[in-house]
Amino acid sequence: MTAPTKNPTPTVSDTHPPALPVGTRNAGLQGLTEFVEHMGTAYAQSRNYDLGQGQHRHVSKLSPYLRHRLLSEEEVVRAAINAHGPAASEKFVQEVIWRSYFKGWLEQRPQVWTQFRYGLERDLDTVASDPAVSARLKAAENGRTGLPYFNEWIRELHTTGYLHNHARMWFASIWIFTLGLPWRLGADLFLRQLLDGDAASNTCSWRWVAGLHTRGKTYQATAQNIATFTNGRFAPADADLAQTAPALVIEEPDGLPPLVPLRQVAAPKVNVPTLLLATADDCQLDARSLSTLNITGVARLPSAHMRSPRAVAAHVRRFEDQALTDACADLAKSHEVATVTTPGDLVKIAQLNGAHQIVHPYATVGPLRDWLDSARPTLDANSLPLCEWQRDWDREIWPFCTAGFFKVKKRLPQLLQQLGLTKTVGDN
Ligand SMILES: Cc1cc2nc3c(=O)[nH]c(=O)nc-3n(C[C@H](O)[C@H](O)[C@H](O)COP(=O)(O)OP(=O)(O)OC[C@H]3O[C@@H](n4cnc5c(N)ncnc54)[C@H](O)[C@@H]3O)c2cc1C
Questions:
Q1: 194 Cα: distance to centroid of ligand 1 (angstroms)
Q2: Is the pLDDT of residue 10 over 60?
Q3: Which of 40, 357, 372, 390 could bridge 84 with an S-S bond, Cβ 3.0-4.6 Å?
């Protein structure tokens, strides 16, 4: 055990910036090719070890690509099963399914996202009016706590836009239970800094640590666990970490909001002049679906800045910009690609291109969906329906994401078979 260091963690400017992931499908495919051999039993055995910045070889680091769907969940799962078989790749596949589970869960409890956004505004008001909370928040965000491991994670987050899953769990637990900071401010920090920042995975994971997802069950970071799974890189003192982690259920005395039915998608009409709207929720525009449409114009809607009322990291905005450019690359050969920032822009561009419908990939609950919902009255007033493509993957999995993960896990063999990823149920 060591005492907390007195030396502050180097700040971002003290260190050489690492090469950040590039937001293109090709870069994602290269990452997939390189990691596929590790998706079997090696992943199951070693995935929990956080070896530190630049050393994350036991995990795929594919999350920014999956988040923007430069890679699809389906192709990543297919690669794992093809390389190792369903049994040896089970753990990796399950982790990818966690992402789909959180997506489907939030689709059916959108109020949880709305409450998060309102609660965040309230938390920010508290920070503005309470100097003690403000000072604690600044110290945490700038990596100037007395906890060297926490400061190191902040530095890694700021410089790479990535943290290992275990570090995210420890970080969130320490943020809430040791530093006593409001969980939403931590979740917001992650959204602003993570390249893979995602309304569903992030909000639900923070809630899970806080005991709000699996109601009453929290995640408590312990000195022993941190030392073990950082291979002794860190040796926290027990006394530096909160000894209890009481669930924050008191914040939500009424429990979870009721389930709402999955949204019905308005499918695009063929032969109708169409404005195609590229969004960062799904940057693989399906060539087959595109070929059935009469595309008269193309636009892109950047949304990284919508993740938070606070400033979103430049590396997050850059990755999204690259991803949207990549998504539109083929279409840009035949169309000018306009960038949309307001609902008025969207109407203008649609009208300029003689479009009678706007088509975009399904937008899940989160900032982009909020923007599209807020644009709807303006679009309706101009007779411009919004139509969406939905992936079979989401359509098949989401109906089972109504309660805990176990419900989806139990169905996984059937789901994988239905999706054509295994031959028979339980196929090995
Ligand atoms: C507090 C907290 C906040 C998080 N915020 C986000 C977030 O904003 N965006 C995000 O994509 N993930 C989030 N996660 C989940 C998880 O930490 C990351 O998906 C994972 O660390 C990404 O690294 P990887 O690609 O190397 O993962 P790998 O271990 O290689 O896993 C492969 C893929 O499976 C998915 N996945 C793996 N673990 C999880 C998980 N626990 N939950 C959901 N999906 C998972 C990811 O898409 C990942 O790319 C969060 C977890 C915690 C505890």
A1: 10
A2: no
A3: 40
SS3 label, residue 349: helix
Q: How far apart are CA 71 and CA 52, in angstroms?
A: 25
Give the number of the atom of ligand 1 that is nearest the alpha carbon of residue 191. 8
**CB 341: neighbour CB atoms within 10 A?**
11
pLDDT, one tens digit per residue, over 186-233 is: 999 999 999 999 999 999 999 999 999 999 999 999 999 999 999 999
Protein residue with least CA distance to atom 43, ligand 1: 99
Kindly state if the Cβ of 96 falls inside 6 Å of ligand 1: yes
77 CB contacts (<8 Å, ≥6 apart)? Answer: 93, 96, 97, 416, 421
Ligand 1 proximity of 170 Cβ (cutoff 6 Å):
no
- Residue 150 to residue 142: CA distance in whole angstroms: 10
Classified as helix, coil or strand, 357 is: strand
**Dist CA 104 CA 107 (whole Å):** 5
Beta-carbon neighbour count of residue 395 at 10 Å?
A: 13
Between CA 280 and CA 282, with CA 281 as vertex, the angle to 5 degrees is: 90
Cβ(7)–Cβ(150) below 8 Å: no
Domains and CATH numbers, the chain: 21-107+395-418 (1.25.40.80), 113-251 (1.10.579.10), 273-389 (3.40.50.620)
pLDDT, tens digit, 9 for 90 and up, residues 50-75: 999 999 999 999 999 999 999 999 99
Ligand-binding site membership of 121 (annotated): no
**Which residue is listed with tokens 């369903």?**
86
49 is in an annotated binding site: no
Tens digits of residue pLDDT in 226-235: 999 999 999 9
